[in-house]
TrEMBL record:
Keywords: Membrane, Transmembrane, Transmembrane helix. It comes from Vibrio gelatinilyticus. Pfam families: DUF2760. The chain crosses the membrane at residues 12-31. Residues 87-209 form the DUF2760 domain. This is DUF2760 domain-containing protein.
């Protein structure tokens, strides 16, 4: 097939300009379509990653909510136990001390105008009656068996509720000091049984002589 060079136009008229513009436009459209296809292919994995991350975040949030609920339940349980703790035994013991030793009468009395002999006589009643209550209903034992005013050693790991350190307390155990008081602990408490309608808040009934 032979081409005639003379047939090729040597001028650039409007027809050729239109053809050139159309070619450029078609080329731009083709390039834009390719870029869109590439963008879609790249975006799909990103969407999948986001979909995987969201459930993980929800699981973490649920675990946090569960932990908070457990803490709240424990607080409510402790508060409930404190609110329902009975003081009947303490009231009963106080009633026995009043009954046997007139202790409340003694403690509530203004002793300013009483002589030392009068206070001493009243104290004997309180002492003897109080000792009777302790001996009858509470079994006590000393925390430390050493003699008072002797040197003792407090080893590491001691119970601070059982041993109270006083004076110049510095450093760490073992501590060396003087036993000022042996301390007491209750081994057993056997208070009298009460009736069904017993009102523990009545420490001592009012007395009316007829």
């Amino acid at each position: 097939m032979n081409f005639d060079i003379n047939v090729i136009p040597d001028t650039f008229d409007m027809l050729h300009a239109g053809l050139a513009a159309s070619s450029v436009l078609l080329l731009a459209i083709a390039v834009s379509r390719k870029s869109k296809v590439i963008e879609k292919v790249v975006e799909k994995p990103v969407e999948k990653i986001v979909e995987v991350e969201k459930p993980v975040e929800k699981i973490v949030e649920v675990e946090k909510v569960v932990e908070v609920e457990k803490v709240v339940e424990r607080i409510v349980e402790v508060e409930s136990k404190l609110a329902t703790a009975t003081t009947d035994s303490a009231m009963q013991l106080l009633s026995l001390l009043q009954q046997e030793a007139r202790m409340i009468d003694f403690l509530k009395e203004d002793l300013t105008d009483f002589s030392d002999d009068e206070v001493g006589a009243a104290a004997r009643v309180v002492h003897s009656g109080g000792k009777k209550v302790i001996d009858d209903y509470i079994q006590l034992s000393a925390i430390r068996n050493e003699q008072e005013e002797t040197r003792v050693t407090i080893e590491e790991g001691f119970n601070p509720q059982s041993i109270r350190l006083t004076g110049n307390v510095t450093g760490s155990a073992p501590f060396h000091g003087t036993l000022v008081h042996k301390g007491w602990k209750a081994d057993s408490v056997t208070l009298p049984k009460t009736s069904e309608h017993y009102d523990a808040s009545i420490i001592a009934p009012a007395e009316v002589e007829l």
